[in-house]
């Protein structure tokens, strides 16, 4: 059986939640290996919509163990709210279905306060969600973090809060002009969370490696998108974790030889939330048309997403840095009514035609997209379940994506529901 990594092939919001939900049927365990509650995965089963921010999308499948691994940063308040919401709707009947690694770092109130203050200040704005993700990763790298294993030990947690809070309050008061936080209030509040959460403590690395040794399959669920990767994305307009497939190894404690397939999720067009370069952005009527048809508003923040034509230059970059073995193309149905569709095949930079993604922001900001125009299909494909049933123009568009990206299409989503999916090849079964 295969172990499969799901990654975003664009700037996030590609529809990973739906694809993870579909592939969970073939996996024994699902693991989230990076990011925090700045990600939102939307799933539609029947007519019921579920939005998850921390818990892996596989939780909607009974009997599948879901793991939050060491590469994640976790807000206990958000996590508990998700658990309560799932239980109210009849999910997570067995608490042993959910495990949190002891090395998972905890988002503290001062992380959120610092994040919000920075974004609302006079300096450069990155466009973060204000959830405290970046400051938590900063403390992790700076060895000032508080982990899940610390949280569930009252004396250890209290000692670390007393050690770290004075520096945070100094930053909040003296530099960011915010009110200081109360030490005892934090210890008391988070102590209450710890009592309710300690039952989920476990080791992701031990559990996952044991599962693989037993010949079972693991699905690794990434958050955000490859072009937001801290090392390989459009820095500094990136997230604070490793969003590419390699992050699954460090973020979950498994070796690279145990990864068999890497599936990249890409919309049939492209969107971006927040600041940062976006060469194929459509700041016009067509961009708004895509936004409305695709309901492109953030599931975490509600912010309207920036929209544009599919960028094959950026997609090739994502395929390369992830070693993708397949592409899942989502939201094909959003293009149903278009007579023609454009694909960005290169960038014009002064007198040069660039076909590799540049990482110099000054260069990217001066690039102009070079488009190839393709006929649309002008018909509803929302009920199509087989490749052969797709209109010839839709098939041609997907083949063009394969050609430009250098990667085969293995899945096509033609609507938000679980059943509105065409599986060309199953990465778990090789068929």
From TrEMBL:
The protein's enzyme class: ligase
GO BP terms, alphabetized: 'de novo' AMP biosynthetic process; IMP metabolic process
Predominant cellular place of this UniProt entry's protein: cytoplasm
Active site: 13, 41, 140
Binding positions (GTP): 12-18, 40-42, 305, 331-333, 413-415
Xref: CDD domains: AdSS (cd03108)
Pathway: Purine metabolism; AMP biosynthesis via de novo pathway; AMP from IMP: step 1/2
Any one Gene Ontology molecular-function term assigned to this protein's record: GTP binding
E.C. number: 6.3.4.4
Binding site for IMP: 13-16, 38-41, 129, 143, 224, 239, 303
Keywords, ordered alphabetically: Cytoplasm, GTP-binding, Ligase, Magnesium, Metal-binding, Nucleotide-binding, Purine biosynthesis
Family of this protein: Belongs to the adenylosuccinate synthetase family.
Assembly mode: Homodimer.
Family annotation (NCBIfam families): PRK01117.1, purA
Protein name as it appears in the record: Adenylosuccinate synthetase
Organism the protein comes from: Geoalkalibacter subterraneus
Taxonomic lineage of the native organism: Bacteria, Pseudomonadati, Thermodesulfobacteriota, Desulfuromonadia, Desulfuromonadales
Gene symbol of the encoding locus: purA
């Amino acid at each position: 059986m295969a172990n499969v990594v799901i990654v975003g092939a664009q700037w996030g919001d590609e529809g990973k939640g739906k694809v993870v939900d579909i592939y969970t049927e073939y996996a024994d365990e699902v693991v989230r290996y990076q990011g925090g509650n700045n990600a939102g995965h939307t799933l539609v089963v029947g007519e019921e919509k579920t939005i998850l921010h921390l818990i892996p999308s596989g939780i909607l499948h009974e009997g599948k163990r879901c793991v939050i691994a060491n590469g994640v940063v976790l807000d206990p308040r958000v996590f508990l709210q998700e658990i309560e919401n799932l239980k109210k709707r009849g999910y997570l009947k067995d608490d042993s279905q959910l495990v949190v690694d002891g090395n998972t770092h905890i988002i503290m109130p001062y992380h959120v306060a610092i994040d919000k203050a920075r974004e609302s200040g006079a300096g450069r704005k990155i466009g973060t969600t204000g959830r405290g993700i970046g400051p938590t990763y900063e403390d992790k790298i700076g060895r000032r973090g508080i982990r899940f294993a610390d949280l569930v030990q009252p004396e250890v947690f209290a000692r670390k809060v007393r050690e770290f809070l004075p520096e945070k309050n100094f930053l909040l008061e003296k530099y960011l002009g915010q009110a200081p936080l109360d030490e005892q209030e934090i210890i008391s509040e988070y102590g209450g969370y710890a009592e309710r959460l300690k039952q989920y403590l476990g080791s992701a690395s031990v559990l996952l490696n044991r599962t693989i040794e037993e010949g079972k399959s693991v699905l690794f669920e990434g958050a955000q998108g490859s072009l937001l990767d801290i090392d390989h994305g459009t820095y500094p307009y990136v997230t604070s974790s490793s969003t590419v497939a390699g992050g699954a190894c460090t973020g979950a404690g498994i070796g690279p030889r145990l990864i068999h397939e890497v599936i990249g999720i890409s919309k049939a067009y492209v969107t971006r939330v927040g600041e940062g370069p976006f060469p194929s952005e459509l700041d016009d009527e067509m961009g708004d048309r895509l936004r409305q048809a695709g309901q492109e508003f953030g599931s975490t923040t509600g912010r309207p997403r920036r929209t544009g034509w599919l960028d094959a230059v950026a997609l090739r970059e994502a395929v390369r840095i992830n070693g993708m073995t397949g592409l899942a193309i989502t939201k094909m149905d959003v293009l149903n009514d278009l007579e023609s569709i454009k694909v960005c095949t290169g960038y014009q930079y002064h007198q040069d035609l660039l076909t590799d993604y540049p990482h110099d922001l000054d260069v990217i900001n001066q690039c102009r997209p070079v488009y190839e125009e393709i006929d649309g299909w002008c018909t509803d494909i929302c009920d199509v379940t087989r490749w052969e049933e797709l209109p010839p123009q839709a098939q041609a568009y997907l083949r063009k994506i394969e050609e430009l990206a250098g990667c085969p299409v293995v899945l096509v989503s033609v609507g938000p529901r679980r059943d509105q999916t065409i599986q060309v090849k199953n990465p778990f079964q090789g068929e």
